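Hi support team,

I'm filing this because I wasn't sure whether my run with adenosine monophosphate finished correctly. The job status page said complete, but I'd like someone to confirm that the output block is well-formed before I use it downstream. Pasting the exact inputs I used:
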Amino acid sequence: MDTNCIFCRIIRGEIPVSKLYEDSQVIAILDINPIRPGHTLLIPKKHYASLSELTPAEQVTWLQPLDKLSRAIVRGTGSEGFNLLLNNGRCAGQVVPHLHIHIIPRKNDDEVSFHWNPRPYPPGLIEKTLNQISNHLVR
Ligand code: AMP
Ligand code: ZN
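And here is everything the job wrote out:
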């Protein structure tokens, strides 16, 4: 537990939230500033800043409620699909340094835009990138 962390304070019940789900490992709350109504944060109760701090077993268990949550969020908001978003690190837009994943309900023509900027690889770079990453994969 981190005394100053806003999500740890929420987990300790010190800050009122709209709690959708709770079990021994995680809570799910409605994001106070939603991209669309129903935007939910699934948060492990232990304070981890990033995904790589979880044990392999915890990496599986904290995402276990994801399917039932996302189905309820889609049905409950009359949506048609959803995005999962995990901002890992400040450079990736992580503002609260306590691991969480966003579940964002989506509808056709909902006019939500994420401003990604995908482009094809220039010649040779896809092979080089594949090698660079593969060298760091723990076998
Ligand atoms: P991130 O940029 O991935 O760190 O996202 C943090 C999210 O936490 C933002 O979408 C905020 O709107 C949300 N948030 C911050 N404080 C609260 C709060 N007290 N209750 C619910 N959501 C919050
Ligand atoms: Zn925390």
